[in-house]
Amino acid sequence: MGVTGFQKLAYNLPGISNLGKAFAGRNKKMQLKLQKAGKDITAEIYYSALILALIVSFMAGLIADLIIFGFFLPFLESQGVGGLPAFLEELLTYAIPIVTTALGFFIYHYLGVTSTIKERGKKIDRTMPYAVNYMAAMASADVSPAEIFRGLATQDIYGEIQKEAEKIARDIDLLGMDLMSVLKRAIVRSPSDKWAEFLQGTITTSSSGGSLKKYFDVKAEEYMRDARLLLQQDLQSLGVMAESFVTVVVAAPLFLIIIMAVMAMLGDKAGEEFLVLIVGLMIPAMQFLFAVLLKDAGKM
Questions:
Q1: What is the spatial distance between Cα 282 and Cα 270, in angstroms, rounded to a whole number?
Q2: What is the DSSP annotation of 110-142?
Q3: Residue 186: which residues within 8 A CB-CB, separation 6 or more?
Q4: Region at 176 (left for phi over 0; alpha for psi -120 to 50; beta for the rest)
């Protein structure tokens, strides 16, 4: 991922750019985190964009304040609708810009870097059994280790591992580095502990004169066995979630709807209100929650 227009804008603003360079100088680890997240930008550019994102988020909070307290609430009061208590109005005036700024930091920093590193690591771990099988097949044909990684770099099917192999091939071909040094660099920037451990084993096996073919075969079998166990666990988890869905989202609301419908027919207004609440809010909210849980379960 290259430099975006927003990041270019932030880095070209002198004051923000200077602050970004200062933060990058204090936090030397950020450059490594960006590499693990697969972002091909410098820490100076990243921090400059982060500062600009926080400024934009704060300004968005001020605009929201202006709309709410300058137009919306006065309009409601002019229509005879009661306004907010004075203390709550003052609290919200300060809270909204703070919340929007915190939200901007969360979206840009956590979702943009920290969460991306974890997600890339999971994707690499899921793809490793098949990628290592490919490497074992190439090693059995007496292909050199450097050529194996070059070949892996051309296989888009392996996703994030293909990107890591692409960087390894680039360091060998463009920088003229030897394979062992390149693999050591790849270990440091790897977002996956399993991939780093595999590369370290490759270095050890190659340096000690061992057979990479046997090493790749053993690791491929090990990772495939782990993948089968993980798949079984996922299927069991999905089974439990399916049973929970039927109980919580189908049976329980249906039971409540019947009770509330009977109460409404008997003239109880509360039953009618609860019926609307269950159908309009509770059931959609639970369905959305289960959809999120199922999506996360599919990424395990």
A1: 16
A2: IIIIIHHHHHHHHHHHHHHHHHHHHHHHHHHTT
A3: 164, 167, 168, 171, 196, 199
A4: left
- Tens digit of each residue's pLDDT (9 = 90 or more) over 32-58: 999 999 888 899 999 999 999 999 999
Percent helix, strand and coil across the chain, each to the nearest 5: 85, 0, 15
234 contacts: CB under 8 Å, gap ≥ 6: 297, 298, 300
- Give dist(CA 277, CA 245) in Å, integer: 19
Q: Give the pLDDT confidence of 195-236 residue by residue, as tens digits.
A: 999 999 999 998 888 889 999 999 999 999 988 888 887 788
How far apart (Å, rounded) are the C-alpha atoms in residues 202 and 184?
10
- 34 neighbors 113 (Cβ within 8 angstroms): yes
Within the chain, which residues score under 70 in pLDDT? 1, 76-77, 79-87, 267-273, 296-300
Side chain identity at residue 192, one-letter code: S
Mean pLDDT taken over the chain = 85
- CA distances to 19, 75, 114, 126 from 41, rounded to whole Å, are 16, 47, 15, 26
Structural domain spans, the chain:
5-118, 122-226, 229-298
pLDDT at residue 81, rounded to an integer: 58
Q: Give residue-wise pLDDT tens across range 138-153.
A: 998 889 999 999 999 9
CA angle 219, 223, 227 (to 5 degrees): 170
DSSP state for residue 42 in the 8-state scheme? -
Terminal CA-CA length for the chain:
24
